[in-house]
Design goal:
3 domains; single chain; D-Maltodextrin-Binding Protein, domain 2; rod-shaped; 20% strand; Arc Repressor Mutant, subunit A; alpha/beta; 44% helix; 309 residues
Length: 309
Amino acid sequence: MAQRRTLPPLNAVRAFEAAARLEGFKQAALELNVTHGAISQQVRLLEDRLGAPALFRRTTRRVTLTAAGKALLDEIGPALDRIANAVQRHRATGGDVPAAVLRVNALATFSMRWLLPRLKRFRDEHPDIEVRLATSNEPIDALPDVFDVVIRGGPDAFHGFTSRLFLSERRLPVCSPSLIAKLPLDDISDLAPHTWLNVSSMPRLWHDWLVQAGQPRLSPAETLTFDHFFLSIQAALDGLGVAMGPTALIGDDVAAGRLIAPFPDVSLPARSYFAYVPDGSEAGSPTAVFCDWLEREGWPTAGNAASAP
């Protein structure tokens, strides 16, 4: 059982703090809207409760703090400030507990294609946690700011960080249903009359996939090259051609029928997604809660991707 607090009368504490801060009983009486005698009486009550030494030296014209009074003011003043601030916050928020801020840094394409569409679910489940998302492709040890969670490919090891796998993926061709309606893709050789959509940072994706598919000499009618995966995926959605789609980032579009994977049995392995968190993150903290949620959201997709050949 918690020990009961031993507190002096709070009116006496308020009277003492005002008189000590304003250096006079008259000034304290004006601030608290009471009489000079009431302040004097409350201060005397506090001194009687505390015992010697006295808190003020009294002369005919003025009162001054004693050393004991100064020491008490140094403790009581900040305590009353905290009470006042707590009351102000309560009034401002209607009693709601301020949300804990969770700083997350994630890859740009991953954020657009996977994380952002799911963040509302996290907010609905955890309204007490405010996610502040920044996007970057920089390595963890090159980030200029400190983050609670950094989402990158892996597995990698970074000093001072623990990693948690939450999403795996593979890569395979995808296109819009309207494109297949014009140029069917019943066999891998049917890719030849199509436009192939490339990503400049991974120029060998199509070559490596064709080797995996047993058609290394196949070539397209045309190519389009983009500098980000999300652009090539958007181009595929718009019917501009066939893209090499990362399964984690196009899964929602395939499930909704906006994209089709005509050759689901042939795919390339890719790096998995990991949440990297600073060492020492406690169980039950906003960081741990967010990482647990990432795993629940990611593992069904991870299992599907990992089972592909």
